[in-house]
Amino acid sequence: MSRHCPRLVFAALRGSAGKTTLSVALAAALKRRGAAVVPFKKGPDYIDAAWLALAASHPCYNLDTFMMGREQVIRSFSRHAPGDSLSLIEGNRGLYDGMNPEGEHSTAELAKLLHSPVILVIDCDKVTRTTAAMVLGCRGFDRSVDIRGVILNRIGGSRHEAIVRRSIEDHCGIPVLGAVPRMADILFSERHLGLIPPQEHDRIRQALGKAADIAGDYLDLGSLTGIAESAPVWEDHAFSVLQPGDKTGREQVTIGVIRDGAFQFYYPENIEALVDSGARVLEISAMTEKKLPPVDALYIGGGFPETQAGLLADNGAFRRSLRDAAEHGLPIYAECGGAMYLGESLTVGDKHYPMVGFLPIAFGMEKRPQGHGYTLLNVERENPFFPVGTGLKGHEFHYSRILSWREGEGHLAFRVKRGIGMDGKRDGLCRKNVLATFTHLHALGTPQWAEGLVDSARRYHAGRQEGAPSVMHLPPGHQEECS
Q1: Domain count along the chain
Q2: Which of 35, 59, 154, 359 is the one with CA 20 to 30 A from 247?
């Protein structure tokens, strides 16, 4: 089925060129004008996606051909991109930067897959006429990439803008659709490799309002919208429609999701997958609630627990209730920051904070990344959620490392084929019904994840109903128990 589907890809020549800020600005400005925007983010990213979601007042979905595969990217885009909204897709890194010299999994390849026009954001700091050569190079490098316009960022003044604008328009035949000056008070600051999460920003609405003002003042919103409207009709192929999981005759279970200022890294598709598989999702705060509410399983995502370590440590009642639930067999899946929270302690600088104390590991924060990039894992040992032999694709990004490990409790279930994991060779610490990993998974690329978590929740729920002892509930085909 063919349908109208306005869409744009925002790309750049490199990271930190202002692409995220201007994508957020465009979404905020269009929303202010009453337009509907559905944001998407290319590549493994939670923070940029969170800002885009706030700017558009709509969930931001991930489009990553490495983690999800091309078919799942098309399916997800078909599901989430309505024809009455503008789909704004923010790329990552440089336009043609991929995993190999062929540019596999690059923003350019995503733009071609989605048949989407591309807008290039050019950082013009300390450069004038050379910008035309940059644009010409991007345009000529792959003519099947539909580059339709350029936005100039960090312009030094009217003379600077005039030279750059004329150079591009005379030599490239591509319109300049905005020129944004250097700004010291844009309110978006960075940490590590991206923006500070909005949950930690003390002036969110002010920042979004400023972003909308920037787009309104310096971007040609009418032309940008027109280019999006001119995108080719979208073909909803037979395989493109995602169907919810079969819930017929199956009792709904409750899966808790810890979401607060410390734990923010969740792909909305992961939450959707749990619901599609028959779960009711209950959001929980580890910072403010005094007791873990009754749930049949728990999902603790990543985030920055180090920035909230004091509050997490001070909430001893919640930590104790969570540790007790884990000891009694509650299925828990924890990623990165969630794994750190389940450990014995977290060291930040010269301060040591007690954590849940269920995993026999003490974590510490370093000044440089300890793991960064895509990961490939193979499930080699028993665990609550994945059959042995399952291949997993994900990503890791953490500044934490293991300071000490009390031996004899739990085992590592995953072999690392690409990435760092917990010790350079293994990841996925399993103890009782808990599986903790440095790797973040995407549900559309790993459908076994939601199925395994919901199935474990059902087994745990049934066991509680029958008064069964709290033991490891392995996926079908397993016979052993975790220690």
Answers
A1: 2
A2: 59
